Hemoglobin-like flavoprotein (Reichenbachiella faecimaris), 144 residues
Amino acid sequence: MNERELMLVKSCWQTVAPNAIPLAMKFYDDLFEAKPEYRRLFSGDMNKQAEKLMMTLGFLMANVDRVDKIKDAIHKLGALHVKFKVLPEYYPPVQKALVGAIAQFMDNQWSYEHEDAWNKLISAVGDMMIEGTTKKRFSWKFWS
């Protein structure tokens, strides 16, 4: 990401972070509306899930200038998601719902530049998560 894109996601995060849990709940509502079959991946308390998502995004945003330094953590996050039966093709709809929820919490401050910057960031993180599943001869098999 270039400096302008980093500035856009950082300033956007500053705006939406105070509404972190409502934003996360909006994300999950939008995701499950678009992909109802994803709901089966979540069996616990969705408020706790929203907190986990926002803590993870907070960690990402605290390190957004040096994502390469947290690559191992992102790889581990990807490997963890496989335990929940998340497949690589699930990432684009998640990205769309997440960026859409952020946009809604930005109201009239949202621009195409924000959208492009967030899509670039979330896509890169998703790619790293998927990359993390290929470490140590990882297999996508959910049986055996």
Summary: The chain has a mean pLDDT of 88.
